[in-house]
Amino acid sequence: MAATELVSALLLFLLICSSDISSGEKTRRPRQPCKRLVLYFHDILYNGKNAQNATSAIVASPAWGDKTTLAVPNRFGDVVVFDDPITVDNNFRSAPVGRAQGFYLYDKKEILTAWFGFSFVFNSTRLKGAINFAGADDIMKNTRDLSVVGGTGDFFMTRGIATLMTDAFEDDRYFRLRVDVKLYECY
Amino acid sequence: MAATELVSALLLFLLICSSDISSGEKTRRPRQPCKRLVLYFHDILYNGKNAQNATSAIVASPAWGDKTTLAVPNRFGDVVVFDDPITVDNNFRSAPVGRAQGFYLYDKKEILTAWFGFSFVFNSTRLKGAINFAGADDIMKNTRDLSVVGGTGDFFMTRGIATLMTDAFEDDRYFRLRVDVKLYECY
Amino acid sequence: MAATELVSALLLFLLICSSDISSGEKTRRPRQPCKRLVLYFHDILYNGKNAQNATSAIVASPAWGDKTTLAVPNRFGDVVVFDDPITVDNNFRSAPVGRAQGFYLYDKKEILTAWFGFSFVFNSTRLKGAINFAGADDIMKNTRDLSVVGGTGDFFMTRGIATLMTDAFEDDRYFRLRVDVKLYECY
């Protein structure tokens, strides 16, 4: 097994190296974002009793799961739709500046990991438009990166990286994510 | 509450302003699309009785929903998979020029909003390839923008904005969207 | 019908042609990828009995489906969450170099087609980060292209095309995809 792993790792290493084509015009590394914003969003999962407060709900689950309890083990297969308030600080009671809308799903049996497809939607006098995100969330890591795959309105055609941190995680029912949005392509 | 809102708005405003880094090389604003196409797609939702005509079906719903009726309130939590005909005009009976394939989900309890992940798939002698879309659809607005996050074939590596208009909306069972696809990166 | 089709085709043709705006600065066609890697991933679907081996599970299905059997016809409406091993060759027993994580859904009644949203997640000493994919998979074709919509870590901000080939397809329970990842934007 160790030998197989070594061979695989070696093959991958060679494959990556050999594939790096030094092409000046297509390889570019921006040093700093052209725009950056740090925001928080708050997710309260529906558990069968909190319809008033809940901002998200399980809408799909594996054969062994249901829609008011997170699946065991590690929530694997649960799909959650959300409409979460976005705030500028970590206080759930701060006035929201927008909504985080879309879905996440838990996709690993052994540990907690998720996959996100969602948008930050802004609709105030100061800020209009949306930032669209997609990517894997390796929840157990301190920080992890998603892709900003596009934007509209004030974020027209943007791309970048969103660094997530779990700022709070309580009782299977509430979590708060800190999102450091670093945009490297601005129009 | 008003004070909290003001503070939040102010903080957000400062945050956005301070994050705008004037970097000539990364900030670019194209004036017009390099390619543009206006198309329509038609969605007939499965309701338990229209298997022949339906082009989409509810595949996931919240605890209080089911798969042949849209959830109350505002369809929140319903996930729909679709394979909808694309036409060049707003006539459902026009010959399709491609298929809109993917999913949408309804993600707000208070009003109708959706999140889309889908593709326009073309496979004719004149047009081959796909345009891939992602983003939030604020349905109650007259127009709203999604991101074109990529493309293949004749739309190799493209990016842009798709402006949606609800062209028809009938009986919870049929809607027609006008999609104005504006591509700002063409290869 | 033939006349309608002809008119639609003609309209689409004109529409595409007229929309091509010759803008030197925005039209660019890279000749070869700046990075390329060919990898395989392996999907074993949960069928009610293989909880140990399964790497994926049906989590949503249409009204006529269930979560341990693929829906008829053509799996339309089934949504599958997966955490599949990635290998550098087509041997399922090779040591994985990463995980393919996310979801696919089957979206056509007449033939097998799917829509994918997922990531290749790498976390070894040699390779860190993720490649994020989205797009339509026209399964019955020999090869088909998805979009690489972004990347993180070693694949920071990348974009490109992923060409899929079905390398094995067995018993409704196992498939193996060969993924030729061609990155045209590298940072």
TrEMBL record, chains A, B, C:
* Gene3D superfamilies tied to this protein: Allene oxide cyclase-like
Coiled-coil residue spans: none
Q: What is its main location?
A: secreted
Per UniProt, subcellular location reads as:
Secreted, Extracellular space, Apoplast
Sorted alphabetically, the keyword list is: Apoplast, Secreted, Signal
Signal peptide residues are 1-24
The family database entries (Pfam families) matched by this protein are listed as:
Dirigent
Recorded hits in PANTHER family, A to Z, give:
DIRIGENT PROTEIN (PTHR46442)
The job of this chain, per UniProt, is described as: Dirigent proteins impart stereoselectivity on the phenoxy radical-coupling reaction, yielding optically active lignans from two molecules of coniferyl alcohol in the biosynthesis of lignans, flavonolignans, and alkaloids and thus plays a central role in plant secondary metabolism.
Q: Which family does it belong to?
A: Belongs to the plant dirigent protein family.
Q: How does this polypeptide assemble, per the annotation?
A: Homodimer.
Name the UniProt record assigns to this protein: Dirigent protein
According to its UniProt entry, this protein's organism is Salix suchowensis
